[in-house]
Specification:
Length: 164
């Protein structure tokens, strides 16, 4: 059941990244065409640049958890392998993962607080849209990162990977 739920979250995350990144690309293309290839009377959307920047932040936070899942983030295993035996390496990796999870939980908690406190703040060039929709990327991204790190921490082959 937990595996099924994880797969659903993973699929939703992947689709969200695809849709958000596609919208960033399309809106950027429209902005460029309107700015450089049309008459002066056709100006780019005033809200476009702001939405592009804030949507890219969503993409970055969502994609960070995919990076953890695929183990594509920078690590210092070379140095750890040089100085620690396999058993110590497993302990060090699990301790580091636990510390990262605690830090992400703290950031997620503050992100939720900040998002809730900014519900009444609106985008500068799109006053009917709350900035909280974009600030929500912080706690959502952190929660997805926590899920990925917990999956790594409690996976059956976590110790075997570290020892190899």
């Amino acid at each position: 059941m937990l595996k099924k739920l994880y797969n659903m979250v993973d699929k939703a995350r992947s689709w969200a990244i695809i849709l958000l990144l596609s919208s960033v690309i399309i809106l950027s293309l429209v902005q460029i065409v309107l700015r450089y290839f049309t008459s002066a009377s056709l100006r780019p959307f005033a809200w476009g640049d702001e939405v592009i920047r804030l949507t890219a932040i969503w993409v970055a936070f969502l994609a960070a958890s995919v990076g953890v899942k695929n183990e594509s983030h920078l690590s210092v295993e070379f140095f750890l392998n040089k100085f620690l035996n396999p058993r110590q390496l497993v302990i060090a990796k699990k301790a580091a993962t636990a510390i990262v999870i605690l830090a992400l939980a703290a950031v997620a908690k503050e992100g939720v607080t900040y998002t809730l406190n900014s519900r009444n703040a609106m985008l500068q060039n799109l006053p009917q849209v709350s900035i909280a929709w974009f600030y929500a990327s912080i706690p959502v991204g952190c929660i997805l990162l926590i899920i990925e790190y917990l999956a790594k921490l409690f996976s059956k082959n976590a110790g075997k990977e570290a020892a190899s």
